Amino acid sequence: PLRKNNVAAVAAHPKAGDMSRINAIHPRTYNEARTIGEHFRDGVPVIMNLTDLSDGDAKRLVDFAAGLVFGLYGSIDRITNKVFLLSPEGVSSEGGQGDPTGQNPGQNSSD
Q: Rounded to the nearest 5 degrees, what angle is found at the Cα of 71, between the Cα atoms of 39 and 62?
């Protein structure tokens, strides 16, 4: 009998999404983190406006976004106190207020 080779499909790193658009998301609850993640995962830059969230939920979403951009090799820039730009890999931004976690690049919190 003929045997078929069992070969696992390997997904290539997603290409940058539609660079002609940026998604502006104004979440009202932490539950909207999934929407932010899906757009970013598709390679589309996301402006995350957290002004309608409590300070606690806003911090949770910033922490979520920091993990998201780390895992997908992107970057995060603080635009204002509660507005952030999430840029996918290969997309650069200028003029932000720096690292939203308050740390310098390459510095971890145990230093």
A: 65
Q: Among 71, 72, 67, 66, which Cα is nearest to 89's?
A: 72
Tokens representing 57 are 């939920």
The 83-87 sheet, strands edge to edge: 23-25, 46-49, 83-87, 75-80
**Distance in angstroms (rounded) separating the CA atoms of residues 39 and 2:** 44
pLDDT mean by block of 10 residues, the chain; 111 residues: 45 49 92 94 94 95 96 94 92 59 42 37
Q: What is the pTM of this model?
A: 0.68
